[in-house]
Amino acid sequence: MSARLPVTTRDRARAIAANFSAATVLVVGDVMLDQFLIGRVTRISPEAPVPIVHFDHEENRIGGAANVANNVVALGARAEIVGLVGADAEAAVLRGALAGRNVGAAGLVADSTRPTTRKVRVVTDRHQQVARLDYERDDEAPEVIEAELIAMACALAATAGAIVVSDYLKGAVTVRLVAELGEVARRRGVPLLVDPKIPHIGYYRGAMLVTPNHHEAEIATHMRIRTDGDARQAARAFREIAECDSVLITRGEHGMWLLTPQSEGALPATAREVADVTGAGDTVIATLALAMAAGATLAEAATLANHAAGIVVGKFGPATVSMEELLAVV
To answer: What span, in angstroms and rounded, lies between the C-alpha atoms of 214 and 223?
Structure first.
């Protein structure tokens, strides 16, 4: 097996990107609403050693699996989302935000027994996070709701060029759901990609690609990853444990390590500055899936995803990358 990855030229990147507008990606997983309460800090509270934030304004952004779909649309393609929401006001906000970004949200399934997953962050006007409050339930969807999720996912997968499972351990991703999607993907000959959580590692058997970050890879393999050689060994071990075809380990400032059946090698980090890593994994797997739906090889898709990650970490909060931004840095 080669220790080097094929080089993706700018002309090849442009040829792949030219197919984005005709591609559709299905994203299945844990959708979230990210709420930011933004204000100024001028003093510390006399009641406790905490900053007092003078509220200025709030922002709502779509997060989790919904942010993966948002990234696909931002790159010029079509995206459909399947996930769990509550029967609450936050679900309406999330649906409205998805509609505003032209993300297909017909696959959202309401479960009245749980809240829509919401992360409320108190941040300063200098983008410093002061506190976070989470509204969520992490138990898996009950059987009736799971059946609805599977029916929606399989119906929408029939026209998708790639399928993404975005797992945040919030109840939408079950072993049966992933197995059904794997069967559809194999039957149609389209890639199934997974952004994983280690407690569910046994769920992802048969996926084309699983994308752990280096902490997740270390936990799954009981290996320390400090060098490219460590990453190589961990990727091989992770592939055996997850029983998937390929592995992409994201390593932050150290870039990525890609292992495929044909090749393996490092992708160096491309970020010029890091403002916020929130949602960077969503951008990575969205770009991977879209590039493959547009005809890229896995190595080519990983190269584009690496560049997209380098752009998005320079932005605040769950952010996206445009096709023009991506092609400008390849």
So the answer is: 10
Alpha helices in the chain (DSSP H): 10-17, 65-74, 89-100, 143-157, 175-188, 214-221, 228-242, 280-293, 298-312, 323-329
Topology of the domain comprising 10-33+63-116+138-329: UDP-N-acetylmuramoyl-L-alanine:D-glutamate ligase (3.40.1190)
- Assess whether 282 carries a catalytic annotation: yes
In 3D, which of 276, 273, 279 has the Cα closest to residue 61?
A: 279
The residue assigned the tokens 């989790």 is 64
Active-site residue identified among 34, 167, 195, 282:
282
d(CA 141, CA 108): 13
**pLDDT under 70: residue ranges of the chain:** 1-4, 6-7, 271-279, 317-318
List, for residues 209-256, the tens digit of each pLDDT value. Answer: 999 999 999 999 999 999 999 999 999 999 999 999 999 999 988 999
Distance CA 40, CA 62 (A): 24
Q: What is the pLDDT of residue 2?
A: 42
For 54, other C-beta atoms within 10 Å of its C-beta total 11
Percent composition of the chain: helix, strand, coil (DSSP 3-state, to 5)? 40, 25, 35
